[in-house]
């Protein structure tokens, strides 16, 4: 099958033709020409290690990461591309010790292929996190591997742990954005939930991001279309994946110059139909403000809708 099967990793045809849909060289069904200023890749560019006959190696992890970054750069030469570290991008699945280390260095060398990524060298080598800034907005890309239960090297986010260092960085970045009257977005791999995160890290994270200047949070990992809304935090938007666990999909967010989330449009392809036709056809699946019937995707409106 040209585009693969459900529950398999994304194959080269699906990656290639999805990037063509993103850059407009292959028309989406509704003929929309997408205009992408900034692409957030929420992690896991490397395949799952689920085939006992072809065990994943460190070389393959680094080669895949470099290959995907090159493809992204070639396909979207004008877009800012910001990758987050996923648990599948680690040399040992789910496990990452404090930086600097060989895993972060290897990932840095592949992300460095992206234009402008060398600006983030210092914090990325320390812990896989960094901040992209515009005049009005700060997008803080976190390395959530330090917060999750599956990474068993550190039990919590206590002093001296890489989770604690990252939370201190996050706190400083938010305080600094606040003093400049700028908005903050947070992106990362694992969404903040008691089922996935260490309780201590989750509680400290909630305290740290409990500021109205945090406009929204973008996460991946779960392959599902969800959002998590709470009074204490900005909404967590979980995007579906290109990996066709369900149907391959991506989102285009509309964020205004002040950093407020106005809307997102989700595009989805039907894997069976794409395999039959021999061409992947992404269609508009829904517009968030039309689906939720709210004026924008601010914390207030998302929370009102959820209750
Ligand atoms: Zn993951």
From TrEMBL:
Record-annotated Calcineurin-like phosphoesterase domain positions: 32-224
Alphabetical keyword list: Glycoprotein, Hydrolase
Keyword field contains Nucleotide-binding: no
GO cellular component annotations of the record: extracellular space; fungal-type vacuole
One MF annotation (Gene Ontology) recorded for this entry: endopolyphosphatase activity
Gene Ontology biological process terms from the UniProt entry: polyphosphate catabolic process
Protein name (Swiss-Prot/TrEMBL): Calcineurin-like phosphoesterase domain-containing protein
Phylogenetic classification of the source organism: Eukaryota, Fungi, Fungi incertae sedis, Cryptomycota, Cryptomycota incertae sedis
């Amino acid at each position: 099958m040209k585009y693969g099967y459900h529950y398999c990793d994304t194959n080269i045809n699906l990656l290639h033709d999805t990037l063509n849909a993103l850059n407009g060289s292959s028309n989406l069904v509704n003929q929309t020409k997408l205009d992408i200023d900034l692409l957030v890749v929420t992690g896991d560019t490397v395949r799952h290690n689920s085939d006992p006959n072809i065990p994943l190696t460190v070389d393959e992890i680094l080669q895949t990461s470099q290959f995907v970054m090159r493809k992204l750069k070639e396909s979207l030469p004008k877009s800012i591309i910001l990758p987050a570290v996923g648990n599948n991008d680690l040399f040992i699945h789910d496990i990452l010790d404090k930086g600097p280390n060989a895993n972060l260095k290897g990932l840095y060398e592949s992300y460095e292929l992206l234009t402008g990524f060398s600006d983030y060298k210092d914090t990325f080598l320390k812990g896989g996190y960094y901040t992209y800034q515009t005049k009005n907005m700060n997008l803080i890309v976190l390395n959530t591997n330090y917060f999750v239960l599956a990474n068993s090297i550190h039990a919590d986010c206590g002093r001296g742990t890489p989770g604690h260092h990252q939370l201190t960085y996050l706190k400083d970045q938010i305080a600094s954005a606040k003093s400049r009257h700028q908005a903050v977005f947070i992106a990362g791999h694992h969404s903040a939930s008691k089922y996935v995160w260490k309780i201590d890290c989750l509680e400290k994270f909630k305290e740290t991001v409990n500021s109205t200047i945090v406009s929204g949070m973008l996460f991946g990992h779960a392959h599902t279309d969800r959002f998590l809304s709470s009074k204490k935090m900005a909404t967590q938007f979980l995007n579906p994946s290109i990996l066709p666990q369900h149907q391959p999909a991506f989102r285009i967010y509309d964020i205004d110059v002040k950093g407020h989330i106005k809307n997102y449009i989700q595009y989805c392809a039907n894997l069976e139909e794409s395999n039959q036709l021999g061409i992947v056809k992404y269609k508009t699946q829904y517009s968030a403000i039309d689906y939720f019937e709210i004026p924008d995707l601010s914390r207030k409106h998302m929370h009102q809708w959820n209750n």
